[in-house]
Every structure is written in C-alpha cells, then in structure tokens.
Design goal:
about 525 residues, alpha/beta, Nucleotidyltransferase, domain 5, 7-stranded mixed sheet, 5-stranded mixed sheet, about 40% helix
Length: about 525
C-alpha cells in the first residue's frame, strides 16, 4: 500500500535535501545531494549554476527512494513544499533559461548599492537583498540586464522548473524587495522609486536601452496556503511523481525555518546558531525607521519579521575548541561547568566583518583576562560563545527600544547538539528558551509544513497559518527558564562587552596591515 504524505525540498548554500513525511508530518526518510560554488572567483564573490540545483533534486530524490525502498515504503505525495537560500539573484530570459550564473546571499559585491537604495527608498535595503544585486547587475553587467525577462531566487527558480509558474512565497519575496504590510505585496511606491534610480543607472551602463520595470521582472507574491501551481510534465519527470501534485508557494530558508520551529505569534523569537547566527522576531506591527543591525522580511503568512543576522557565529568558539584539542565531547562539560562570568575572561568573536555592528574588519577575535587561573578550556570557550550571544543582544536593542515583545526563544542549529547551552541563552536574554525535538534540522520540515497547509487549504480543512502551526506537534520540547543570579551576573558582563565593542575601531587600526 502507498503511504500518503508530504515532500519538503530545501536548497541550501552547500547542498540540497528532500524529506518525505507521513500525513501527520512525521519524517520517514530524507535524501541528500551537494553542489559547489563556481570556482576561481574573486574575493567576496559567490556564485552557483542553477542547473546544479536541479541536478541535486534528481540526486536527492534517488537517494530518498533508495531509503524508502529499503523500508518498503511506497510514497504518495499529497503536496510539495520548497525552501531555498534567500536573497540570491537568478536571471532568466523569456523562456526561463538562466542568464549566466546565480549570485548568492553571501556575495558581497553590492555594498555601495545597498547604501544607495537604503538612502533612496528610505527603508533598510541590506546588501544581500535581491533588488540591491539587480542594481549592481545593471551597473556592472549591463549585457545580462538587457537580456533579463525574469528575476527570482533559488527557491523561485526551482519552483518554476517544477510548475512553470513565476510565483514566490511572501517571505522569500520580502528578501527580494520591500513588502507593503497592508497589501501583502511589493510596495508600489518604492517600486516606482527603484525604477527611477535603475533607469538613471541604465542610462550610463545601457545607453539607448529601456529596462523593464522591476515589477515586470519579479515573481508574483503568494502567502502560505495560496495557489502556487502544480507539477507540470517537466517537474513530474524530475521528481518521478504524477503531474498535478499541488506545490506550495516557494519560501526562503528563514521563513521555512520559522515554520519548522512552529513560530507564528508575536513575541516568539527563532534563534539559530551555526557558522552564522540568526535571530528572527515575529512582530506585532511594522518596524519604524532604519536600524543598522536589523533587516526585515515576512513570515509565510505575511506577518512582519525582524531579523538580526551575524556573520560571526560559532566559528570563533570552534577555533578555541580546536586550540584545546578539538574534542567537543570533552570540552563541553567544562563549558557548562564554567562560571557565569567565565572567571573574568572577556572575548571578541570577530573572525569576519560584522556590518550590523559597525565592524568592518575581521581577524580581530581575541580573549582578554588570561592568567594561570582563568586560562581553562571551559572559561575560554564559554567566553567566546557568550560574545556571540552578546552580539545578538546588541543587535536586538532597537527592538527593545520600540517595545517589541520577546516572550519565548526557540533555539535551533548546531548549538543544540549540547542542549544545556540553551540555559546560557535564556540567562543572557532573561527569556525562556525552548528546544524542539529535531531542532538541528528544521528547514526542510518547514517546507513539508507549507505543503501540508496548502493541501489542507485545497481540502477546505485549513484555518489560518498561526492556528495551523499551533495545532502541530514537534515531539517533547526541552525548556529552560532564566536563573535570576546568572541573569544579574551576565548583565554586568554584557556591560563590559559593550565597552569592548566600542573600542573595536582602534583594534581594527592596529590589526590592519600597512
């Protein structure tokens, strides 16, 4: 007998995964595939071939089917969800064929355009936003801009290859261009303002060529549950499934991760710790003004999300672990046993630049206060971890000033391999922390949730997105409540850290080679 369920596809920066769940969203099996960056590019240049993502879908599906066959499971896919790395720039011609390579979220060539658009539009446009990349392309690759008929993201391109439709979930779309919260669509006034700037740039780089309006290039915006097409002949062949299987609006990895953490209500914050660190706060209203550390996008239902993103995640902590022999299993108990103030040690984790905090140069990671008493693995590693958590707290201060609620932190990513570290996060933010079962991998499951919500909507079973998520089960969560004594101690350490970050420009001048 066939097993009905949902297919989740997640296209990340280094590889693609697919999962198949049963009708209750329990993961039955997964499939994996990898791909690489385009080689031999310059500094801060990160590009991939869209065809590699499609090939990875084929490989990952073959891997999934091998596992299901070994389990004697014959899948029946009720609906498909897609998530992918946000902020990429995929250019295609009118037929949907890629024009050159895709530039990824981590490609850093657009900083000047980000500042220009932020100033021109009067809203935060980080350098990784897709529209910022498009302005860079107009200026620096005019021959590609002149041929472009469609502009989308990695998830949007995969959705097109499966359905033939240029449709995108509102969360991923918000990473392309600012969203009007009242209309849940691209901001029409800002689109016109963008076209004015783009036309001025094109007059220099593309003399005599009229660019289409940006609205004509962008994919159609859809919220969770809405129609985003179904498998066409090509998509059915690629996945080995029947034509007509409904596909949910393709989402970015951050909105899908929010779904995978069952986050939808104002006051909930998703924190993911890995090579980079992200804190996504569900807002009860649109953000006011511009704050350097905070970017903005949307949850799958269009609710505003305020994001603090750190380039400097757990890398510096991992480096210190390596300095003490690299055995996480041996060192983590010492980290957990270390004093809340790390014996007086204070660290900076800046292996890379941190634009949101005004740190323009990496390579300035350090630990202060080393002596024969304090220089223990537990103290040093914990100090470096605290520095990263403190950076998140610094980046979140404007949200606190504007009175955004923070009632619960849902923790995910590599940090939850040592779940007891959730207590440290709870103490720094003085906020309860929850770790869901399977917190290490939530994005592909979030895509499967989007698929189920689309299926339920078609069947007339769905209510609203927040109620749908609240009704789902993620196993037995682990919870941590703030400890008053530790909260008080860490507040004092945070004040010391703030002073150290304020001195960072002097450290940069010393560290910068002549």
């Amino acid at each position: 007998m066939k097993t009905p369920g949902y297919l989740g596809i997640d296209a990340g920066t280094q590889g693609l995964s697919v999962i198949f769940t049963d009708a209750d969203l329990k993961i039955i099996a997964s499939g994996e595939a990898t791909y690489a960056m385009v080689p031999d590019l310059g500094p801060e240049c990160y590009e991939q071939q869209p065809a590699d993502w499609e090939a990875a879908v084929d490989t990952a599906m073959a891997d999934l089917r091998r596992k299901l066959t070994a389990m004697q499971v014959d899948l029946e896919v009720l609906a498909i969800g897609i998530s992918g790395q946000m902020h990429g720039e995929v250019l295609t011609d009118a037929n949907g064929d890629p024009i050159g390579t895709a530039r990824l979220w981590c490609d850093g060539r657009n900083e000047a355009e980000g500042h220009k658009l932020t100033e021109h539009l009067g809203t935060k446009c980080p350098k990784r936003m897709t529209a910022v990349r498009w302005l860079w392309t107009i200026r620096h690759r005019p021959e590609q801009a002149a041929r472009t008929a469609h502009l989308t993201t990695p998830a949007g391109w995969l959705a097109f290859r499966l359905t033939g439709e240029w449709i995108l979930g509102i969360g991923d779309a918000a990473g392309m261009f600012p969203i009007d919260q009242a209309r849940l669509d691209y901001d029409q006034t800002l689109l016109k303002a963008f076209d004015t700037l783009a036309n001025a740039a094109a007059a220099t780089s593309l003399p005599g060529t009229a660019l289409p309006q940006l609205a004509e290039l962008l994919p159609t915006v859809r919220t969770a549950g809405q129609d985003a097409g179904s498998l066409n002949a090509h998509g059915a062949e690629l996945l080995g499934l029947p034509q007509g299987v409904p596909v949910a609006p393709a989402e970015g990895d951050q909105p899908a991760a929010l779904a995978g953490s069952l986050i939808a209500a104002p006051g909930q914050v998703s924190m993911s710790f890995g090579t980079s660190v992200v804190a996504n706060s569900v807002g009860d209203r649109a953000f006011a003004g511009i704050a350097q550390p905070i970017d903005h996008f949307c949850a799958p239902d269009g609710r505003p999300i305020n994001m603090v993103c750190l380039r400097n995640g757990t890398t510096a902590m991992n480096m210190v672990v390596a300095m003490f022999g690299g055995d996480f299993a041996a060192i983590m108990p010492q980290v957990l046993a270390a004093a809340d103030d790390c014996g007086g040690l204070l660290a900076l984790p800046f292996m890379d630049d941190e634009p949101g905090l005004g740190v323009s140069q990496g390579g300035t990671a350090l630990v202060l206060g080393l002596n024969n008493t304090t220089a223990t693995p537990g103290n040093a590693v914990k100090a470096m971890l605290l520095a990263t958590i403190f950076n998140l707290k610094l980046g979140s201060e404007e949200l606190d000033r504007q009175g955004y609620p923070r009632n619960e932190i849902i923790l995910s990513g590599g940090l939850v391999k040592t779940p007891e570290l959730g207590q440290v996060v709870a103490n720094v933010f003085n906020t309860p922390v929850t770790i869901l079962s399977g917190g290490e991998e939530g994005t592909a499951w979030g895509a499967a949730l989007l698929a189920k919500f689309r299926s339920d909507t078609l069947a007339g079973r769905a209510t609203d997105w927040a109620s749908f998520l609240a009704a789902q089960s993620a196993g037995s969560p682990t919870s941590f409540s703030p400890e008053p004594s530790a909260v008080a101690t860490l507040s004092q350490v945070f004040d010391r850290y703030r002073h150290l970050v304020a001195l960072h420009s002097q450290l940069e001048s010393i560290a910068r080679p002549a």
